[in-house]
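Figure 6 in text form: structure in, sequence out.
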């Protein structure tokens, strides 16, 4: 059994975990410790992992059902489990700032929770850094759990029973065109605005760039509330910025965290990260 050692990264979220090799075959007790740590810390960084795609998918399966990558699936109907973040094509070539895939990835620079626009949204994302830019390219995280706990009690009472519509086409089409097949595969869906972690009872709200409107509220009222909740979760002091090192494997809890990518100069640097996700339990309206 591994002995996990966890050091905090930020007051609201995040732990740096040493003492475990994620590429080895993990025993049930170690997997359970990692699950508990996800529930407690919301984000775990495992430095110096000698990761491969094969090992990452095996580890992803330890935590649950891998989530099919929605962009490729939406366009072609083919199931794959990896998303690639960055601009690397192969060992010799990369794309720059003007490339469509770089532009498309700019959508990740808005606060969001991965796959919040899916009927069964993501539990966690797992990212591994193979190449990192010399400047920029951090990922910023903020907790909607601690933000919920900070809300005035009247606002908590207001939002507790609400439902929120998340809509991928709403959030992404202003940034880059969404392929029609992809758009058709992701109709707007409703979630509970306030979610509860089933293992520790911690509550959080669930917004981000994909959150379009509140069920039964006008557009103006909806945007006012969603924008307020987002602002309350992402004050500068609430943010943990992860500056990636090569070999970092980071797991984050999409049920309760927001994240966004910081810009980097794709004309100047290479960046390569591989990302998998674990499906959550849902639909959330049935949680
Ligand atoms: Fe993301």
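Output sequence:
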């Amino acid at each position: 059994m591994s002995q996990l050692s966890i050091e905090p990264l930020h007051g609201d979220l995040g732990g740096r975990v040493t003492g475990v090799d994620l590429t080895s075959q993990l025993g049930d007790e170690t997997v359970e410790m990692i699950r508990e740590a996800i529930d407690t810390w919301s984000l775990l960084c495992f430095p110096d992992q000698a990761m491969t795609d094969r090992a990452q998918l095996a580890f992803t399966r330890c935590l649950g059902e891998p989530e099919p990558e929605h962009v490729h699936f939406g366009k072609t109907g083919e199931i794959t489990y990896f998303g690639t973040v960055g601009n690397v094509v192969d060992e010799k070539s990369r794309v720059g700032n003007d490339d469509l895939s770089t532009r498309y990835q700019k959508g990740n620079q808005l606060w969001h929770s991965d796959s919040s626009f899916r009927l069964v949204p993501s539990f966690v994302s797992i990212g591994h850094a193979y190449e990192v830019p010399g400047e920029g390219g951090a990922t910023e995280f903020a907790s909607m759990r601690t933000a919920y706990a900070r809300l005035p009690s009247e606002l908590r009472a207001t939002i507790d029973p609400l439902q929120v519509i998340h809509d991928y086409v709403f959030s992404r089409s202003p940034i880059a065109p969404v392929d029609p097949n992809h758009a058709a595969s992701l109709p707007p869906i409703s979630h509970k605005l306030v979610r509860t972690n089933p293992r520790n009872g911690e509550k959080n709200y669930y917004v981000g760039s994909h959150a379009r409107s509140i069920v039964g509220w006008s557009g103006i009222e909806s945007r006012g509330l969603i924008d307020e909740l987002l602002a309350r979760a992402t004050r500068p002091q609430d943010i943990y910025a992860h500056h990636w090192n090569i070999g970092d494997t980071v797991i984050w809890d999409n049920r309760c965290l927001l994240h966004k990518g910081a810009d980097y100069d794709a004309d100047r640097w290479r960046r390569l990260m591989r990302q998998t996700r674990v499906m959550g339990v849902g639909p959330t309206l049935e949680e």
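Caption detail: The chain has a mean pLDDT of 95.
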